[in-house]
Amino acid sequence: MITVVGKDTKGIIAKVCTYLADNNVNILDISQTIVQEYFNMMMIVDMTKLEKPFVEAADDLAKLGEGIGVQVKCQREEIFDVMHRI
What we know:
It is built from 3 helices and 4 strands; from the N terminus they run βαββαβα. The chain has 86 residues and is an alpha+beta fold. A 4-stranded antiparallel sheet has the order 2-3-1-4.
């Protein structure tokens, strides 16, 4: 699960998706909205073909987000599910 939140700017989706494609990550589902001037995106991805450790990819995505002024968080599905269980 990847979430991206921050002030809307050009190229957010392109930069995140390019990183994922370059690292063999498949996007299974994507949802994005803009509320007033704030961007919010949630992606469900398949990282089974990722050729680097999950933690390294999560750090890369966080740094990529910092570079474009948004916050990018990457969580394993099982952790996300536990955190959002009612």
